[in-house]
Automatic annotation (TrEMBL):
GO molecular function: serine-type endopeptidase activity
InterPro entries recorded: DEGP_PDZ, DEGP_PDZ_sf, PDZ_sf, Peptidase_S1_PA, Peptidase_S1_PA_chymotrypsin, Trypsin_dom
SUPFAM superfamilies: Trypsin-like serine proteases (SSF50494)
Example GO biological process: proteolysis
Domain of life (superkingdom): Eukaryota
Domain Peptidase S1: 57-98
Pfam family, one: PDZ_3
Positions of region (Disordered): 1-27
Stated name of the protein: Protease Do-like PDZ domain-containing protein
Residues in Protease Do-like PDZ domain copies: 232-314
Keyword set, alphabetical order: Hydrolase, Protease, Serine protease
Biased composition (Polar residues): 11-22
Amino acid sequence: MSPVSERRLTRQQQAAEQNGHVNRSVGPGTEWETVVRVVPAMDAVVKVFCVHTDPNFSLPWQRKRQYSSSCSGFIIGGRRVLTNAHSVEHHTQVKLKKRGSDTKYLATVWPLEPNVILKGVRVRRIEPTAPESEVLKLSDILLSFDVVKIANDGTIPFRDGERIGFSYLVSQKYTGDKALVKVLRGSKVLEFKIKLQPHKRLIPAHINGKLPSYYIVAGFVFSAVSVPYLRSEVLVADINIRYEDIVNTQVITFNGKPVKNLKCLANMVESCKDEYLKFELEYQQVMVVKTETAKAATLDILAMHCIPSTMSDDLKP
């Protein structure tokens, strides 16, 4: 190698080092290993490929068709990768691919923690079970978060000449951290120190990959309520004429006894010896069918709609 070429190589190496590039020395026959490594920290980022099979909330005894999605993940040690919970929700298969690689590796999903995302700028609605409900009120104007002023469009200063959504400040904190918020209430400016923590939902926001619970009798489909609301539904049959339009309605009592949950309802109906099945619903609605006729018709309805069972596996004794 000539001195000139040596000097050129040295200058290239210096430029590479200044730009964050690292050159590897390579032996003969390994030209594909001469790939310049840009920002080695990016090697901790992987691409996550997921095949999902979501529950069918209208027909809770079966699932919907499969579909695929992809997202990014981050290696956190211990042969584990951190990614968004919704990216692998209701997964059938998950694969990982490293940056620059053509090989996909099968992965196992650990328990999901879906309720970790905090967002929102304006105080338009406050969940009654949220800790902030004791401090904030509807129509409060959020002026600042940890002394950072919030603009009318809900943005804050970011890098030089740039702005970003206020939720960025929240994302920099952890559950249990405290934040100083300043609000305008009426004509007064108030300051509160709030503790950031997820609120307890009365209705679960996720079913954590499980199939929805259901119970069927006389063509009435009863399901446990959740945020991705599995719609109450009536499978039309002669026995439930006049009740076809009853949907999205809570069951209050069965034969005069309060219904605590779906399993309680299933047990009461299965063991019922009364002549009639009487379901009292919200909005003063009532459904009444003969017990013997209802149980006989249920078998025909299951066969007609290709439903394998009157109830989901988690409700069976």
